[in-house]
Design brief:
With 212 residues, the chain is α+β, with helices and mostly antiparallel strands. 43% of the residues lie in helices and 19% in strands. It is built from 5 helices and 7 strands, in the order E-E-H-H-E-E-E-H-H-E-E-H. The strands form 2 sheets. Strands 1-2-3-4-5 form a 5-stranded antiparallel β-sheet, covered by helices on one side. Strands 6-7 form a two-stranded antiparallel ribbon. The two termini are 31 Å apart.
Length: 212
């Protein structure tokens, strides 16, 4: 199943677990947006979504631990990412210190690899293009080494500035995914060259590696 939804053209929901609860959570978000309930601070938005979703899930006695989600949404203060945990659906906003998260069956792979990329490339949140690069590489790796739980095709959505209207959400086109994979192939080639240099007794210096 595809795990990404775009609500009201400006909110991204990436869910894990029950598909039906994911559909209902998107409906909860849409209703809250149209009622102007999401025109508040990021904490207030996160709290409201949690309260409304938990109430909706309880109306049909949905068991706890059946669904979790990552939600990207805009406020007047910028764009935000909130994790609604699978265990209890309690919200946690990503911050300048920890700006990424992953969920689902490949979490043990994706969390580890995202941490590796952070250590190599970023001491602060990456820009949009860097984020796409990291997301594509991470998801491709998950598809490659965890085929029982994550499958192609990869779907990625971004929340980006849209002029005076604030922010707009959209899915990446195939051409954009292909461009990111070209950058990834370049990095892999450079890493392979670094390995060959270490093994070459005639190589006097290890070559400098360009940052992607």
């Amino acid at each position: 199943m595809k795990k990404i939804d775009i609500v009201e053209n400006c909110i991204i929901v990436a869910g894990t677990g029950s598909v039906g609860l994911g559909q209902r959570f998107c409906d909860v978000i849409g209703c809250a947006w149209n009622a102007d309930a999401l025109k508040a601070t990021s904490i207030d938005v996160s709290r409201a979504l949690c309260q409304n979703a938990v109430k909706d899930f309880a109306s049909t006695q949905a068991p706890t631990g059946s669904y979790g989600a990552l939600v990207a949404f805009p406020t007047q203060h910028g764009a935000h990412l909130c994790e609604f945990a699978v265990d209890d659906f309690q919200p946690e906003l990503m911050t300048e210190r920890i700006w990424y998260s992953s969920m689902g069956s490949a979490k043990h792979i994706t969390d580890t690899f995202l941490g590796f990329l952070r250590g190599v490339y970023w001491s602060e949140p990456p820009n949009l293009l860097d984020g796409i690069f990291a997301a594509v590489w991470t998801l491709d790796l998950a598809c490659e080494i965890n085929p029982g739980g994550v499958h192609e095709p990869v779907a990625i959505a971004v929340l980006e500035p849209a002029g005076k209207e604030g922010y707009a959400a959209r899915e990446l086109e195939d051409e954009e995914l292909a461009e990111a994979r070209q950058h990834i192939d370049h990095v892999k080639h450079e890493l392979n060259g670094f390995r060959r240099a270490l093994q070459d007794p005639d190589q006097s210096e290890v070559p400098d590696l360009p940052r992607a």
